[in-house]
What we know:
This protein is an alpha+beta fold.
Amino acid sequence: MYCHETGMTKFMLMKIPFFKEIMISAFDCEHCGLKNSEVQFAGKLDDFGVKYELNVYNSIGFNRTVVKSEYATIRIPEAGLEIPPQTQKGSIKTIEGYFRTTIEGLQDLQEERKKFDPVTCQKIDEYCQKLQDYASGKIMPFTFILEDPSGNSYIENPAAPTADQYCKKTYWIRTVEEYQEMGYPVDQATLIASQDLEKQKILEERNSSQQSGRYIGGDKRWVSQTKQEQEVLLEKVTKHATKINRDVPITAGYIDFSKSIDDQEQIDDIPDDDPRKQVLKFPTPCYTCDKMGNVQMCQSSIPFFKEILIMAFVCDFCGYRNSEIKEGGGIGQLAKKIIFRVENDQ
């Protein structure tokens, strides 16, 4: 493009877990040194537009990989930064990488600008210094918002397949204007947008599955988990965990939850390799202080109910603790509704 010589473009097909396959193209010119890369999605749109709201509290969130399509907009309200779709093509970077790219773009032509408009040049330099503080991780927390009408953008969950405590994901139905911005003719955009309105029920179900979690504390950390994440949870934990002997049984209400109803007095008869007599332990970074803590997981059987997975995280450095219960069995054949009437204090 710059020297009009022949360069080399390489393509690589990449599968991103819990997202989709993408095509990465990279161009390199050995004559002038020009290099660039782009992420492509073969022109296919997702069923809905998507919006990610990520609260960046520490280096784990700061180093997340972000896939941005050519139609996506990035906003960081605390920094007063907005990256519109036209300024950057489809790309895959960390959050730090988007700060660095923005700084490089603003610094272009600063020498020329300094000669003709020194006031604007000085303001740009001051703003670049502010972005440099964000890029260095000196300013936290902040909110990273990724909004994409094509639905082809993605923010990595470093704790996958477990719930993402710091990122909220929502979908929406695209408008006629959004289809036009993505290159659709007016007639076709109007037709597709009207057909999308029939997907309202599907949209509600998808948003419901994404928002079936809870907020933690007074900040905006969101906990959610999809069915896909639940299915691979046990497999991933078992693969990377180390087994240790159970030191203290898990009890509540005079019931040992490490035993079934038939094993309450027969724990010594259970083989050592039985899952009910083992605790899986695996290292996990702490979301509060970034140090490595340990998640311990055990399989328990609740009398007259089913098997469950109890997961407990403890950080020895900052003292942060968290526990969660997952259903260990499959989905029942029928739905169930329980009504409990309280008539007295017993």
